[in-house]
Amino acid sequence: MNYNLERLIGNTPLVESKVLQQNPNVKLLFKLEGDNPGGSVKDRAAFNMITSALERGAIDKNSKLIEATSGNTGIALAMIASIYGLDLEIVMPENATKERVQTMRAYGAKVTLTSKDIGIEGARDFAENKVKQEGFYMFDQFSNPDNWKAHYKTTGPEIWRDTEHKVTHFVSSMGTTGTIMGTSTFLKEQNKDIQIVGVQPTDESSIPGIRKWPEEYLPKIFDASRVDQIIEVSEDEARVMAKELARKEGIFSGMSSGGATVAALKLCEQLDQGVVVSIICDRGDRYLSSDLFD
Questions:
Q1: Is 278 a catalytic residue?
Q2: Is residue 79 pLDDT above 90, yes or no?
Q3: pTM of the entire structure?
Q4: 184, 205, 253, 256: which is the annotated catalytic residue?
Q5: Which of these is catalytic: 17, 27, 31, 42?
Q6: Whole-number mean pLDDT of the chain?
Q7: Catalytic status, residue 290
Protein backbone atom coordinates (compact mmCIF):
# COMPACT_ATOMS: atom_id res chain seq x y z
CA MET A 1 0.00 0.00 0.00
CA ASN A 2 1.16 3.55 -0.82
CA TYR A 3 1.22 5.74 2.31
CA ASN A 4 2.74 8.84 0.66
CA LEU A 5 1.08 12.20 1.33
CA GLU A 6 0.93 12.90 -2.40
CA ARG A 7 -1.64 10.13 -2.88
CA LEU A 8 -4.14 12.26 -0.94
CA ILE A 9 -4.10 14.95 -3.65
CA GLY A 10 -7.24 14.82 -5.80
CA ASN A 11 -10.29 12.57 -5.71
CA THR A 12 -12.12 15.34 -3.85
CA PRO A 13 -15.86 14.88 -3.16
CA LEU A 14 -18.88 16.27 -4.97
CA VAL A 15 -21.63 17.62 -2.67
CA GLU A 16 -25.09 18.61 -3.90
CA SER A 17 -26.56 22.02 -3.05
CA LYS A 18 -29.59 21.42 -0.85
CA VAL A 19 -30.62 25.00 -0.02
CA LEU A 20 -29.18 27.70 -2.30
CA GLN A 21 -30.06 26.05 -5.63
CA GLN A 22 -33.83 26.22 -6.15
CA ASN A 23 -34.39 25.04 -9.75
CA PRO A 24 -36.00 21.56 -9.37
CA ASN A 25 -34.84 20.47 -12.82
CA VAL A 26 -31.17 21.22 -12.20
CA LYS A 27 -28.59 19.57 -9.94
CA LEU A 28 -25.75 21.78 -8.63
CA LEU A 29 -22.71 19.90 -7.34
CA PHE A 30 -19.88 21.56 -5.43
CA LYS A 31 -16.42 19.98 -5.86
CA LEU A 32 -14.71 20.48 -2.52
CA GLU A 33 -11.06 21.17 -3.35
CA GLY A 34 -10.36 22.27 0.21
CA ASP A 35 -10.18 18.55 1.00
CA ASN A 36 -6.75 18.37 -0.64
CA PRO A 37 -3.93 18.02 1.96
CA GLY A 38 -2.68 21.59 1.33
CA GLY A 39 -6.24 22.90 1.54
CA SER A 40 -6.88 24.00 -2.04
CA VAL A 41 -7.20 23.06 -5.71
CA LYS A 42 -3.63 24.31 -6.19
CA ASP A 43 -2.19 21.11 -4.73
CA ARG A 44 -2.87 19.46 -8.08
CA ALA A 45 -0.93 22.00 -10.17
CA ALA A 46 1.90 22.33 -7.63
CA PHE A 47 2.44 18.58 -7.51
CA ASN A 48 2.44 18.26 -11.30
CA MET A 49 4.71 21.29 -11.86
CA ILE A 50 7.33 20.12 -9.33
CA THR A 51 7.37 16.42 -10.18
CA SER A 52 7.39 17.09 -13.94
CA ALA A 53 10.32 19.52 -13.57
CA LEU A 54 12.20 16.94 -11.47
CA GLU A 55 11.53 14.19 -14.04
CA ARG A 56 12.78 16.41 -16.88
CA GLY A 57 15.91 17.28 -14.90
CA ALA A 58 15.01 20.96 -15.04
CA ILE A 59 15.46 21.23 -11.24
CA ASP A 60 17.13 19.28 -8.45
CA LYS A 61 17.84 19.72 -4.74
CA ASN A 62 20.51 22.34 -5.53
CA SER A 63 18.11 24.58 -7.49
CA LYS A 64 16.90 27.92 -6.12
CA LEU A 65 13.17 28.01 -6.80
CA ILE A 66 10.84 31.02 -6.83
CA GLU A 67 7.18 31.69 -7.60
CA ALA A 68 4.82 34.67 -7.50
CA THR A 69 1.39 33.85 -6.16
CA SER A 70 -1.63 35.37 -4.46
CA GLY A 71 -1.58 32.58 -1.88
CA ASN A 72 -2.93 29.10 -2.46
CA THR A 73 -0.33 28.11 -5.06
CA GLY A 74 2.38 29.23 -2.67
CA ILE A 75 1.05 27.02 0.11
CA ALA A 76 0.77 24.06 -2.23
CA LEU A 77 4.27 24.56 -3.68
CA ALA A 78 5.72 24.97 -0.17
CA MET A 79 4.09 21.71 0.95
CA ILE A 80 5.31 19.73 -2.06
CA ALA A 81 8.79 21.34 -1.90
CA SER A 82 9.09 20.24 1.73
CA ILE A 83 8.36 16.64 0.73
CA TYR A 84 11.13 16.69 -1.91
CA GLY A 85 13.62 18.75 0.14
CA LEU A 86 13.64 21.72 -2.27
CA ASP A 87 14.69 25.35 -1.60
CA LEU A 88 11.69 27.59 -2.38
CA GLU A 89 11.01 31.36 -2.19
CA ILE A 90 7.42 32.63 -2.50
CA VAL A 91 6.67 36.21 -3.56
CA MET A 92 3.27 37.70 -2.82
CA PRO A 93 1.55 41.04 -2.13
CA GLU A 94 1.78 42.24 1.48
CA ASN A 95 -2.01 42.23 1.89
CA ALA A 96 -2.09 38.42 1.81
CA THR A 97 -3.73 37.03 4.93
CA LYS A 98 -1.52 36.20 7.92
CA GLU A 99 -2.64 32.56 7.81
CA ARG A 100 -1.28 32.11 4.28
CA VAL A 101 2.11 33.64 5.04
CA GLN A 102 2.51 31.63 8.24
CA THR A 103 1.48 28.39 6.54
CA MET A 104 4.12 28.80 3.81
CA ARG A 105 6.79 29.56 6.40
CA ALA A 106 5.67 26.55 8.45
CA TYR A 107 6.39 24.35 5.42
CA GLY A 108 9.90 25.87 5.29
CA ALA A 109 9.54 28.30 2.37
CA LYS A 110 11.06 31.79 2.36
CA VAL A 111 8.25 34.37 1.92
CA THR A 112 8.94 37.78 0.35
CA LEU A 113 6.14 40.34 0.52
CA THR A 114 5.84 43.05 -2.14
CA SER A 115 3.81 46.25 -1.92
CA LYS A 116 0.05 45.79 -2.11
CA ASP A 117 -0.01 48.86 -4.36
CA ILE A 118 1.60 46.90 -7.21
CA GLY A 119 -0.56 43.81 -6.65
CA ILE A 120 0.18 40.34 -8.00
CA GLU A 121 1.56 41.91 -11.20
CA GLY A 122 4.32 43.53 -9.12
CA ALA A 123 5.05 40.22 -7.38
CA ARG A 124 5.38 38.56 -10.79
CA ASP A 125 7.81 41.28 -11.95
CA PHE A 126 9.90 40.84 -8.75
CA ALA A 127 10.18 37.07 -9.24
CA GLU A 128 11.02 37.41 -12.94
CA ASN A 129 13.85 39.83 -12.10
CA LYS A 130 15.38 37.29 -9.68
CA VAL A 131 15.24 34.68 -12.45
CA LYS A 132 17.10 36.99 -14.84
CA GLN A 133 19.62 38.41 -12.37
CA GLU A 134 20.22 35.63 -9.82
CA GLY A 135 19.56 32.40 -11.71
CA PHE A 136 16.42 31.33 -9.91
CA TYR A 137 14.10 28.76 -11.51
CA MET A 138 10.49 29.94 -11.66
CA PHE A 139 7.61 27.52 -12.17
CA ASP A 140 5.58 30.36 -13.76
CA GLN A 141 2.13 28.92 -13.17
CA PHE A 142 0.73 31.49 -15.62
CA SER A 143 2.50 29.96 -18.63
CA ASN A 144 3.47 26.47 -17.41
CA PRO A 145 1.57 23.71 -19.31
CA ASP A 146 2.05 21.41 -16.30
CA ASN A 147 -0.46 23.67 -14.51
CA TRP A 148 -3.44 22.97 -16.77
CA LYS A 149 -2.30 19.40 -17.52
CA ALA A 150 -2.75 18.57 -13.81
CA HIS A 151 -6.46 19.21 -14.24
CA TYR A 152 -6.59 17.41 -17.58
CA LYS A 153 -5.17 14.34 -15.82
CA THR A 154 -7.18 14.54 -12.59
CA THR A 155 -9.98 17.12 -12.11
CA GLY A 156 -11.69 16.51 -15.45
CA PRO A 157 -11.66 12.69 -15.21
CA GLU A 158 -12.93 12.82 -11.60
CA ILE A 159 -15.92 15.00 -12.57
CA TRP A 160 -16.70 12.79 -15.57
CA ARG A 161 -16.52 9.65 -13.41
CA ASP A 162 -18.35 10.97 -10.34
CA THR A 163 -21.29 12.45 -12.30
CA GLU A 164 -21.58 9.16 -14.20
CA HIS A 165 -20.95 11.11 -17.45
CA LYS A 166 -23.98 13.35 -16.80
CA VAL A 167 -22.24 16.70 -16.23
CA THR A 168 -23.65 19.39 -18.58
CA HIS A 169 -21.95 22.56 -17.24
CA PHE A 170 -18.65 23.27 -15.46
CA VAL A 171 -18.13 26.53 -13.51
CA SER A 172 -14.76 27.77 -12.26
CA SER A 173 -13.25 31.04 -11.11
CA MET A 174 -10.34 32.14 -13.30
CA GLY A 175 -6.96 33.16 -11.88
CA THR A 176 -4.07 31.42 -13.59
CA THR A 177 -6.85 29.67 -15.58
CA GLY A 178 -5.14 26.28 -15.11
CA THR A 179 -8.22 24.65 -13.55
CA ILE A 180 -10.64 25.72 -16.27
CA MET A 181 -8.21 25.08 -19.16
CA GLY A 182 -7.36 21.51 -18.14
CA THR A 183 -10.84 20.50 -17.04
CA SER A 184 -12.42 22.01 -20.15
CA THR A 185 -10.00 20.18 -22.44
CA PHE A 186 -10.79 16.81 -20.88
CA LEU A 187 -14.58 17.27 -20.61
CA LYS A 188 -14.89 18.58 -24.18
CA GLU A 189 -13.06 15.46 -25.40
CA GLN A 190 -15.73 13.33 -23.70
CA ASN A 191 -18.72 15.45 -24.82
CA LYS A 192 -18.24 18.60 -26.89
CA ASP A 193 -21.65 19.90 -25.76
CA ILE A 194 -20.57 20.33 -22.12
CA GLN A 195 -20.60 24.07 -21.43
CA ILE A 196 -17.62 25.67 -19.70
CA VAL A 197 -18.31 28.81 -17.66
CA GLY A 198 -15.52 31.06 -16.35
CA VAL A 199 -15.92 33.54 -13.50
CA GLN A 200 -14.23 36.95 -13.36
CA PRO A 201 -14.59 39.93 -11.00
CA THR A 202 -16.39 43.05 -12.17
CA ASP A 203 -14.32 46.17 -12.78
CA GLU A 204 -13.11 47.71 -9.50
CA SER A 205 -13.87 44.48 -7.57
CA SER A 206 -11.05 42.77 -5.67
CA ILE A 207 -11.57 39.04 -5.13
CA PRO A 208 -8.46 37.14 -3.95
CA GLY A 209 -7.42 34.39 -6.34
CA ILE A 210 -9.36 35.53 -9.41
CA ARG A 211 -8.64 38.35 -11.82
CA LYS A 212 -9.66 40.12 -14.95
CA TRP A 213 -6.12 40.36 -16.28
CA PRO A 214 -4.72 43.32 -18.21
CA GLU A 215 -3.79 42.20 -21.72
CA GLU A 216 -0.03 42.26 -21.00
CA TYR A 217 -0.44 39.96 -17.97
CA LEU A 218 -2.98 37.54 -19.47
CA PRO A 219 -1.84 33.97 -18.57
CA LYS A 220 -0.14 32.36 -21.56
CA ILE A 221 -1.90 29.06 -20.83
CA PHE A 222 -5.31 30.76 -21.33
CA ASP A 223 -7.13 29.76 -24.52
CA ALA A 224 -10.40 31.65 -24.93
CA SER A 225 -11.78 28.93 -27.22
CA ARG A 226 -11.97 26.55 -24.24
CA VAL A 227 -14.45 28.78 -22.36
CA ASP A 228 -18.03 29.08 -23.64
CA GLN A 229 -19.25 31.82 -21.33
CA ILE A 230 -17.85 34.26 -18.78
CA ILE A 231 -19.96 35.52 -15.87
CA GLU A 232 -18.76 38.52 -13.88
CA VAL A 233 -19.45 38.82 -10.15
CA SER A 234 -18.90 41.71 -7.78
CA GLU A 235 -16.82 41.64 -4.62
CA ASP A 236 -19.94 42.24 -2.54
CA GLU A 237 -21.74 39.29 -4.18
CA ALA A 238 -18.72 37.02 -3.57
CA ARG A 239 -18.41 38.10 0.08
CA VAL A 240 -22.09 37.54 0.85
CA MET A 241 -22.14 34.15 -0.88
CA ALA A 242 -19.04 32.91 1.01
CA LYS A 243 -21.01 33.49 4.22
CA GLU A 244 -24.18 31.94 2.76
CA LEU A 245 -22.27 28.81 1.76
CA ALA A 246 -21.11 28.34 5.35
CA ARG A 247 -24.43 29.16 7.02
CA LYS A 248 -26.81 27.38 4.66
CA GLU A 249 -24.79 24.56 3.04
CA GLY A 250 -22.13 23.93 5.70
CA ILE A 251 -19.37 24.68 3.17
CA PHE A 252 -16.62 26.87 4.69
CA SER A 253 -14.69 28.47 1.83
CA GLY A 254 -13.01 31.64 0.61
CA MET A 255 -14.28 34.60 -1.39
CA SER A 256 -13.43 33.24 -4.84
CA SER A 257 -15.53 30.14 -4.11
CA GLY A 258 -18.34 32.49 -3.14
CA GLY A 259 -17.92 34.20 -6.50
CA ALA A 260 -18.04 30.90 -8.40
CA THR A 261 -21.21 29.95 -6.51
CA VAL A 262 -22.88 33.26 -7.40
CA ALA A 263 -22.19 32.51 -11.06
CA ALA A 264 -23.30 28.88 -10.77
CA LEU A 265 -26.62 29.89 -9.17
CA LYS A 266 -27.27 32.50 -11.86
CA LEU A 267 -26.60 29.81 -14.46
CA CYS A 268 -28.90 27.29 -12.75
CA GLU A 269 -31.78 29.79 -12.81
CA GLN A 270 -31.51 30.02 -16.61
CA LEU A 271 -31.42 26.28 -17.37
CA ASP A 272 -34.35 24.02 -18.29
CA GLN A 273 -32.37 21.07 -16.94
CA GLY A 274 -28.79 20.03 -16.29
CA VAL A 275 -26.02 18.86 -13.97
CA VAL A 276 -23.76 21.76 -13.01
CA VAL A 277 -20.39 21.24 -11.28
CA SER A 278 -18.81 24.25 -9.57
CA ILE A 279 -15.37 24.42 -7.98
CA ILE A 280 -15.02 25.30 -4.28
CA CYS A 281 -11.32 26.02 -4.55
CA ASP A 282 -10.20 26.24 -0.92
CA ARG A 283 -11.16 26.40 2.78
CA GLY A 284 -12.39 29.40 4.76
CA ASP A 285 -10.04 28.99 7.72
CA ARG A 286 -7.20 30.73 5.88
CA TYR A 287 -9.29 33.95 5.74
CA LEU A 288 -10.18 34.21 9.43
CA SER A 289 -7.77 37.12 10.06
CA SER A 290 -9.45 39.08 7.25
CA ASP A 291 -12.85 40.78 7.47
CA LEU A 292 -14.53 38.18 5.22
CA PHE A 293 -16.50 36.52 8.01
CA ASP A 294 -17.00 39.55 10.29
A1: no
A2: yes
A3: 0.93
A4: 256
A5: 42
A6: 94
A7: no
